[in-house]
Amino acid sequence: MPTSEIKESDKIYKIINARLLIEHEIVENAYLWFQNGKIIHPQNLFFSARRDADEIIDAKGLLVVPGFIDTQINGSYGIDFADYEEPVEVLQKNIDKVAKGLLQYGCTAFCPTVVSSAAEVYQKVLPLLNHRKGSATGGAEILGAHVEGPFISVLKKGAHKQAVFKDAKNGIKDFDEVYGPELLKGNKAVSIITMAPEIDGVCDAIPDLVARGITISMGHSACRIAEAEEAVTKGANSITHLFNAMQAFHHRDPGLIGVLGACDLPIPETSVGHPAPSSTSPDRKRPDPRPFYGLICDGVHVHPNSIRMAYYSHPTGAVLVTDTLSAAGLPSGIYQLGGSEVEVVEDGAAYIKGTTTLAGSTITIVQCIRNFRKFTNCPLVEAIEAATLHPARLLGIEDRKGTLNVGGDADLVFLDDTNGDIAVKRVFVAGEEVKL
Hints:
By secondary structure, the chain is an alpha/beta fold. It has ten helices and 22 strands. Its cofactor is a divalent metal cation.
């Protein structure tokens, strides 16, 4: 059948002249096949369907990697995901605008983040942030919301509004009351919850939340090391924006940061949701029991030396996040974050207006990768995996995201790295090319 007569959805695409990131290595002069938005194995085509590719895509020597995943983004382009006062139709258009805008930076999937809010906010906005497939015209895939608070510490509130903070003395019931019926959908609606382990009832509720498929991240916390380790043993597998909104490291009680050095946590029975073993793991052949940790690599939130220390302590746990707020993609000025005024200064840092309290960033995910590589001197592959494979493993979706393995989604980014840096040249979402 001529290519012109084949339905677009059935077309088989073959990428040639590519350098592919496969199994932690860059493979030169490689091919990649995809169909119906999924990466496929060509052997079945030749021996079963007796078909060749319908369309050839020449990568011209560019590096082809999985689409980037951002698990913490509060908004962009003047839009804040915690804004609930507009009509639902307007809020949906705003979400779509952000999802489309992210594609130019190679971000093909994300967790829209809602800072600590009142119950009525969650009940209005969370239904709009449910899991949604991505497309070249519709924008990056939504992986479910990241709700950051309100079960967090007053001592480490950051830019969050203390008036809405909650405890969980009644366990999972308190979480259901705050977030509403969307929480019953599990990770289809709420992908990640950031909480402070020391808040009453929080640790006891973790197993029930994990049972719903929700990722538990520790953050905005003044917890001691024992409380952090207890949360990990109950199912927490992440730390939200490491070093920020937590106790400073102390050699006698390192607090939440100290979990990166833990050596006696129970070894996970499964690799799902856990970092791969590394040279610093308690067991170098089994999944690492230590949590993943988010890093905002804008050079403001965390000193480059601290980024380097975290990476060398626990390399497979690094997850790059932007933590962008509504000002991302816009010039310096005054913007909103969860109802608070935030001022963005010339270097891109954002602060609660009139204070020195950081309130998010304006960096892009591709710039995070560049900075992470620069700060740590790690190989390019590891820098890219911190924005692809690692967040996919964190969310337990590495079977379809974060790699170029057969069966995975054809979310692809073509990178030019000829000058020692990386630049996004082409982007595909579910096999469709984005017009950049």
